[in-house]
Amino acid sequence: MQAAPIDTARPGRLQWGMTSLSPSSSDAVPLQVAIDGPAGAGKSTVARQVARTLGLTYVDTGAMYRALAWSVLEQKVSPDDADAVCRLAQSLSIVLENKAGGVRVLADGQDITPHIRTPQISRLTSPLSALPCVRTRLVKLQQQMAARQGVVMEGRDIGTVVLPQARVKVFLTASPRARAARRHAELAARGIDCSLADLEREIRERDLRDSTRDTSPLSAAPDAVLIDSDLLTADQVVARILALAHNIAGDQADAAGDQADALPRSITPLLAP
Prior knowledge:
Blueprint: E1 32-36, H1 43-54, E2 57-60, H2 61-74, H3 82-91, E3 94-99, E4 102-107, E5 110-111, H4 119-129, H5 132-147, E6 151-155, H6 158-162, E7 168-173, H7 176-189, H8 196-212, E8 225-228, H9 234-262
Parallel strand pairs: 1-6, 1-7, 2-6, 7-8
Antiparallel strand pairs: 3-4, 4-5
């Protein structure tokens, strides 16, 4: 399986989260922003905007699990056959492409972006994502993506399992009723008719499955900042996350300055950008 975000770090630019004192240092560590939360909390909308503002790569981990669910249906693999699902997860090529209009999802070279947001795919994704072999495979790919560039990664186990070392961690939540209403409006805009009551029931059921599964359960990292979006707009949530990122950058800059001050005076100029 293969995931390929298109944005890469630009050499010579000081990026958010660099721990080195020089923009050109090979030891530079780009910022990792982990956004977790339950289904329908608005993670994708917020994460895309944060990534765009900070110039980082947006990684929609949920799209990867949805791509597997779509492939299970397309290849007529029984969702109850864990071994068959695991074999498919190992062989399936998944590519994420960040485009101006959103993330393009390809499975074995086929663009499946319009097909992975249906209620049927949503219902199937949760049990498949609970399989340890599936999570192990996709988590490894997600970590590889974050190791080579700055990312804003959203999902359910990013701050706890995928990127436990992320400097910015957010747990974005909202009430099941509010999340169901958002998902209902999103589906209606795409011409998909569904019951608001059914959506709320499915969201509650998914919350229970996601938070009680044995492998990578949905939970807030101890050091994550909790944001309840019930009474907040997407722009307000984005502003709060950007403020966290700026605070982190400021703290690192202060630490870098302290390190430079502690060095012999003759060496300090060598560390200046």
